[in-house]
Amino acid sequence: MSNFWCEIDLNAIEHNINIIKKLIGDKKLIGVIKGDAYGLGINTISKYLEDKVDILAVGNIEESRQIDVKTDILLLSPLCTIEDFKDDRENLIFSIDNEEIIKELPQNTKKRVHIYVDTGMNRMGIKINRLDSVIQELKSNHPNIEIEGLYTHLHKCKDVRYTVSQVGRFKKVAEKYKGEIPFIHCLASSGILDNDIRKAADFTTAARGGNIIYGYAGYNRGIKKTFTYYAVPVNVCKVAKGEQVGYGGLFTAKSDMTVGVLACGNVHGMGITRETKNNPIYDMFKILYRSIKKRYVIFNGGRPVEILGKPNMNVTLINMTGLDKYAKLKIDLSPVISESSVEKVYIE
Q1: This prediction's pTM
Q2: Which intervals of the chain form a coiled coil (predicted)?
Q3: What is the structure's pLDDT at 341?
């Protein structure tokens, strides 16, 4: 094992799936594994989810080719192109999200599709007032195309009132196909977690789980975080009082101390956050607060460990004074940000 790795708790993933299934009731579960399974490793995670979900969903054709599963694989909008339709795997389901692509659909091979409906995101999708015509055109002129799903994307779930209205727009055009088209879905992680949005989508037959499967959200619902980063120092060195440490000499030792070298840095997400901007006044107070109170991301047995200076590209220096040379340090990082080649250890 290397000196820096990510441990992924597969039991926690199963726990989260069980909670999701209780929330969505009798709906089918689509397990989203785009973005290298949200940074947790698409190969292992796809195999683990294979018998726990009804469909796996990827972001593009390249991701689908990285996995070897018998479960159906849905290529999500907006990165499904006409070139993708040349792939002849039987378990591949394509997205139709624009009318132009219909003109170029293959005529002599069977293809399974979900139609993506634009209900307000305006990123891609068949317009609501065109859905019936598109379905009729596919049935009449493309008998080799099997419509297995209708779906849309709820893009403002924090605004529950707006989202409930958006679900209503989707319901008006999609509900009448219930029983004829097996997979009708609009709920994703945020929608699954909200009672009002979930209730509005009671007509749907499936839901997509991404963030909540892996523990990025939903802790108030019992969802568990599934990943933890760890590091063991690669090297340690002694530094005398008054000496400077690291690039730019940003830290000066106030006493004799031990400096530890960790094999992780900016490329792994150290010093980078996924914070959302609010407004200038809020952000100003946030900066002021952090200038007074440090935010620790490295811990030894629950106790914070000081970063010396700033993390570099692939190295972070820490205060190792009083710590064991081989201490296993916990690091607060997100797989979505961290470099995907970090070694992953899967635990059951």
Answers
A1: 0.90
A2: none
A3: 86
